[in-house]
Amino acid sequence: MGKKPMGKRLPIGAVILAPGSSVQYKTAGWWMFRPVYNRAKCNKCGLCWVYCPDVAISIKKDGFCEFDLDYCKGCGICAKECPMKAIVMVEESA
Fold first, then answer.
1. pTM for the whole structure
2. Helix, strand or coil, per DSSP, at residue 87
3. In angstroms, rounded to a whole number, what is the distance separating the alpha carbons of residues 90 and 23?
4. Structural domain boundaries of the chain?
5. Helix, strand or coil, per DSSP, at residue 92
6. How many other CB atoms are there within 10 angstroms of residue 7's CB atom?
7. Are 79 and 87 contacting, i.e. CB atoms less than 8 angstroms apart?
């Protein structure tokens, strides 16, 4: 018995930005909770950025976070991983 193909190979370094890409589908409507960021408590460690599964957090030039709430799904991982508790999840009102 021969090896079964593992699927279609993509060129190295390929980025797919065609229909079906998450760039075109904002996911903020999925959440029940949203992050609220307290810049005064932030120590600029970047752990929220590292752990965000949705790439909804970016680090600005000054080292502070910026949240893209169009793509945040409200999972709360950023708040859980923040050692300074600078991020809290609040229930989104309807």
1. 0.70
2. strand
3. 25
4. 27-91
5. coil
6. 6
7. yes
Q: What is the dihedral of CA 60, 32, 21, 48, to 10 degrees?
A: 30
CATH 3.40.50.10140 fits 27-91, yes or no: no
| Residue linked to tokens 């929220």 | 48
What's 68's DSSP letter?
-
H-run or E-run covering 57 = strand 57-59
In 75-94, which positions are buried (b, 16+ CB within 10 angstroms) versus exposed (e)?
Answer: bebbbeebeeebbebeeeee
pLDDT value of residue 54: 83
Sorted by sequence, the CB contacts under 8 Å of residue 91 that are 6+ apart come out as 32, 33
Which band of pLDDT confidence, cut at 50, 70 and 90, is reported for residue 92? Answer: confident
* Averaged pLDDT of the chain: 82
pLDDT at residue 79 above 90? yes
